[in-house]
Design brief:
Strand content: 15-25%
Distance between the termini: 18 Å
Number of strands: 8
Radius of gyration: 16 Å
Number of helices: 7
Shape: globular
Oligomer: single chain
Mean pLDDT: 93
Strand order of the largest sheet: 1-2-4-3
Order of helices and strands: HEEHEEHHEEHEEHH
Protein backbone atom coordinates (compact mmCIF):
# COMPACT_ATOMS: atom_id res chain seq x y z
CA UNK A 1 0.00 0.00 0.00
CA UNK A 2 1.29 3.49 -0.77
CA UNK A 3 0.21 7.00 0.14
CA UNK A 4 -2.08 7.46 -2.87
CA UNK A 5 -4.02 4.30 -1.93
CA UNK A 6 -4.83 5.56 1.57
CA UNK A 7 -8.52 6.05 2.31
CA UNK A 8 -8.21 9.45 3.98
CA UNK A 9 -11.36 9.35 6.11
CA UNK A 10 -10.59 5.85 7.42
CA UNK A 11 -7.01 6.90 8.16
CA UNK A 12 -8.10 10.05 10.04
CA UNK A 13 -10.63 7.99 12.02
CA UNK A 14 -7.82 5.68 13.16
CA UNK A 15 -5.65 8.63 14.16
CA UNK A 16 -8.48 10.23 16.15
CA UNK A 17 -9.18 6.89 17.81
CA UNK A 18 -5.58 6.72 18.98
CA UNK A 19 -4.31 10.27 19.56
CA UNK A 20 -7.41 12.39 19.06
CA UNK A 21 -10.23 13.92 21.02
CA UNK A 22 -13.76 14.70 19.83
CA UNK A 23 -15.61 17.60 21.35
CA UNK A 24 -19.07 18.65 20.10
CA UNK A 25 -17.49 21.62 18.29
CA UNK A 26 -13.92 20.64 17.48
CA UNK A 27 -11.40 17.85 16.88
CA UNK A 28 -7.91 17.88 18.31
CA UNK A 29 -5.08 15.47 17.57
CA UNK A 30 -1.83 15.41 19.55
CA UNK A 31 1.51 14.21 18.24
CA UNK A 32 5.27 14.56 18.42
CA UNK A 33 5.75 15.49 14.76
CA UNK A 34 4.46 18.75 13.26
CA UNK A 35 5.07 17.31 9.76
CA UNK A 36 2.80 14.35 10.51
CA UNK A 37 0.05 16.59 11.92
CA UNK A 38 0.31 18.79 8.83
CA UNK A 39 -0.12 15.70 6.62
CA UNK A 40 -3.33 14.88 8.53
CA UNK A 41 -4.43 18.51 8.17
CA UNK A 42 -3.92 18.32 4.39
CA UNK A 43 -5.94 15.09 4.16
CA UNK A 44 -8.62 16.68 6.31
CA UNK A 45 -8.82 19.76 4.08
CA UNK A 46 -9.18 17.53 1.00
CA UNK A 47 -12.00 15.51 2.60
CA UNK A 48 -13.96 18.24 4.37
CA UNK A 49 -12.84 21.52 2.80
CA UNK A 50 -11.91 22.67 6.29
CA UNK A 51 -8.40 23.59 7.41
CA UNK A 52 -7.08 23.10 10.92
CA UNK A 53 -4.16 24.68 12.73
CA UNK A 54 -0.97 22.94 13.92
CA UNK A 55 0.75 24.50 16.90
CA UNK A 56 3.32 23.72 19.57
CA UNK A 57 1.82 22.84 22.97
CA UNK A 58 3.24 25.17 25.60
CA UNK A 59 5.38 23.53 28.26
CA UNK A 60 5.79 20.26 26.32
CA UNK A 61 7.66 18.77 23.38
CA UNK A 62 4.40 17.89 21.68
CA UNK A 63 2.26 19.48 18.99
CA UNK A 64 -1.48 19.68 18.38
CA UNK A 65 -3.74 19.84 15.34
CA UNK A 66 -6.92 21.75 16.17
CA UNK A 67 -9.90 21.70 13.79
CA UNK A 68 -12.97 23.75 14.64
CA UNK A 69 -15.91 22.36 12.68
CA UNK A 70 -19.09 20.60 13.77
CA UNK A 71 -19.94 18.50 10.72
CA UNK A 72 -16.72 16.41 10.67
CA UNK A 73 -17.07 15.91 14.44
CA UNK A 74 -20.49 14.33 13.97
CA UNK A 75 -19.29 12.35 10.95
CA UNK A 76 -16.50 10.70 12.96
CA UNK A 77 -18.77 10.18 15.96
CA UNK A 78 -21.60 8.54 13.99
CA UNK A 79 -19.89 6.72 11.11
CA UNK A 80 -16.69 5.71 12.95
CA UNK A 81 -18.14 5.10 16.42
CA UNK A 82 -15.68 7.49 18.16
CA UNK A 83 -17.03 8.68 21.53
CA UNK A 84 -16.88 12.27 22.74
CA UNK A 85 -14.43 13.14 25.49
CA UNK A 86 -12.35 10.52 27.33
CA UNK A 87 -12.53 7.43 25.18
CA UNK A 88 -9.47 5.23 25.70
CA UNK A 89 -11.24 2.40 27.56
CA UNK A 90 -14.68 2.64 25.95
CA UNK A 91 -13.85 3.05 22.26
CA UNK A 92 -15.15 0.23 20.05
CA UNK A 93 -14.39 -0.63 16.41
CA UNK A 94 -16.64 0.90 13.73
CA UNK A 95 -19.57 -1.35 12.92
CA UNK A 96 -19.79 -1.15 9.14
CA UNK A 97 -16.19 -1.41 8.00
CA UNK A 98 -15.73 -4.10 5.34
CA UNK A 99 -13.67 -2.75 2.43
CA UNK A 100 -10.03 -3.83 2.49
CA UNK A 101 -8.73 -0.34 1.62
CA UNK A 102 -10.71 1.24 4.45
CA UNK A 103 -9.68 -1.44 6.95
CA UNK A 104 -5.99 -1.08 6.11
CA UNK A 105 -6.15 2.73 6.22
CA UNK A 106 -7.93 2.58 9.60
CA UNK A 107 -5.13 0.40 10.97
CA UNK A 108 -2.44 2.69 9.54
CA UNK A 109 -4.05 5.63 11.31
CA UNK A 110 -4.12 3.79 14.63
CA UNK A 111 -0.52 2.62 14.21
CA UNK A 112 0.69 6.11 13.29
CA UNK A 113 -0.92 7.30 16.54
CA UNK A 114 -0.14 4.47 18.95
CA UNK A 115 2.55 2.13 17.60
CA UNK A 116 6.29 2.26 18.25
CA UNK A 117 8.89 1.03 15.79
CA UNK A 118 12.06 -0.02 17.57
CA UNK A 119 15.41 -1.66 17.03
CA UNK A 120 15.38 -4.19 19.84
CA UNK A 121 18.62 -5.76 21.07
CA UNK A 122 18.29 -9.40 22.11
CA UNK A 123 19.65 -9.62 25.67
CA UNK A 124 21.48 -12.88 25.06
CA UNK A 125 22.68 -12.80 21.46
CA UNK A 126 22.98 -8.96 21.29
CA UNK A 127 21.55 -9.14 17.78
CA UNK A 128 19.32 -6.23 16.84
CA UNK A 129 15.82 -6.91 15.58
CA UNK A 130 13.24 -4.58 14.11
CA UNK A 131 9.87 -4.83 15.79
CA UNK A 132 6.58 -2.95 15.98
CA UNK A 133 4.82 -2.54 19.32
CA UNK A 134 1.25 -1.31 19.68
CA UNK A 135 -0.81 -0.71 22.80
CA UNK A 136 -4.29 0.52 23.64
CA UNK A 137 -6.65 0.50 26.63
CA UNK A 138 -9.37 -1.03 24.43
CA UNK A 139 -9.23 -4.80 24.04
CA UNK A 140 -11.83 -4.77 21.26
CA UNK A 141 -9.77 -2.28 19.19
CA UNK A 142 -6.61 -4.37 19.70
CA UNK A 143 -8.44 -7.51 18.57
CA UNK A 144 -10.04 -5.73 15.61
CA UNK A 145 -6.64 -4.50 14.39
CA UNK A 146 -5.15 -7.96 14.95
CA UNK A 147 -7.77 -9.41 12.59
CA UNK A 148 -6.89 -6.83 9.90
CA UNK A 149 -3.21 -7.79 10.24
CA UNK A 150 -3.95 -11.54 10.11
CA UNK A 151 -6.16 -11.10 7.03
CA UNK A 152 -3.13 -9.46 5.37
CA UNK A 153 -0.78 -12.33 6.31
CA UNK A 154 0.85 -10.54 9.26
CA UNK A 155 1.11 -12.52 12.50
CA UNK A 156 1.42 -10.71 15.82
CA UNK A 157 1.64 -11.78 19.45
CA UNK A 158 -0.88 -10.29 21.88
CA UNK A 159 -0.86 -9.84 25.64
CA UNK A 160 -2.07 -7.58 28.45
CA UNK A 161 0.63 -5.65 30.27
CA UNK A 162 0.81 -4.83 33.98
CA UNK A 163 -0.58 -1.33 33.34
CA UNK A 164 -3.82 -2.82 32.02
CA UNK A 165 -3.06 -2.00 28.36
CA UNK A 166 -3.73 -4.45 25.55
CA UNK A 167 -0.63 -4.98 23.44
CA UNK A 168 0.22 -6.32 20.04
CA UNK A 169 3.75 -7.03 18.81
CA UNK A 170 5.06 -7.79 15.33
CA UNK A 171 8.55 -9.20 15.65
CA UNK A 172 9.55 -11.88 13.15
CA UNK A 173 11.42 -10.91 10.01
CA UNK A 174 8.75 -12.49 7.79
CA UNK A 175 5.94 -10.62 9.51
CA UNK A 176 7.79 -7.30 9.34
CA UNK A 177 8.27 -7.93 5.60
CA UNK A 178 4.55 -8.72 5.20
CA UNK A 179 3.70 -5.58 7.15
CA UNK A 180 5.86 -3.45 4.82
CA UNK A 181 4.15 -4.97 1.77
CA UNK A 182 0.64 -4.31 3.09
CA UNK A 183 0.90 -1.20 5.27
CA UNK A 184 2.89 2.00 5.66
CA UNK A 185 3.50 4.69 8.24
CA UNK A 186 2.72 8.29 7.30
CA UNK A 187 4.43 9.41 10.52
CA UNK A 188 7.92 10.37 9.23
CA UNK A 189 9.95 9.08 12.21
CA UNK A 190 8.17 5.73 12.28
CA UNK A 191 8.44 5.34 8.50
CA UNK A 192 12.16 6.06 8.67
CA UNK A 193 12.71 3.51 11.44
CA UNK A 194 10.70 0.83 9.65
CA UNK A 195 12.71 1.26 6.46
CA UNK A 196 16.17 1.72 8.01
Amino acid sequence: MNFSEIDSKAYIAGVIGGDGHLNKNFIQIDGDSPQWLQTINTLFTTCFNKQGRVYHKKGSRGYRLYISSRSPVHYFHEKWNIPFGKKSKIIEPPRSLTQERELKSFLIGWFDAEAHVEHWKHPRTKRIYLRIQFKTKSESIRNFLLTILQDSGVNASVYKDNEGSFRLQIGSRNDITEYKQNFIFLHPKKSELLNS
